[in-house]
Amino acid sequence: MKKWVWVVVIVIASLAVGYAVAARAWGLPGMQLGDGRERTADTPLTCSLGQFITNLRDTGRYIRVTLDLQAIDSESHKQLVARSSELKTDIYALLRSKHYEELVGEEGLRNLQKDVLERIDAKCPGMVRAVFFTEFIIQ
Questions:
Q1: Going from the N-terminus, what domains does the chain have, and what CATH number goes with each?
Q2: pLDDT digit string (tens) for 97-127?
Q3: pTM score, whole prediction
Q4: In whole angstroms, what is the distance from residue 10 CA to residue 19 CA?
């Protein structure tokens, strides 16, 4: 009899964990954001373009950045994900065109942020609200 109790407990626990994972992945009821809030229609959607590592225009200098885009809405988010390879190519071209001196300090970071937003807006007009760097290293 004890075995059946444990089997039932394990099955119920497995179902609960499975539902929690599915809720997070597919937006089922009960999906929580990282801070415990429910996702609503006005919650910003973030699209990660991942990490970029490339050389700068200066010999021996390189940059490593990780970029996230804040989409205007869910349709824009889908479009950004679908066109991510195209966007990444343009961002690599932009990064490779920069000199070290252009990227130094907060002003350099903010200017690059603006340049990336302009490049993306040229390909996907009005779809991106903001560009965020989660990693920014130049050497």
A1: 1-39 (no CATH), 45-138 (3.30.479.30)
A2: 999 999 999 999 999 999 999 999 999 999 9
A3: 0.68
A4: 14
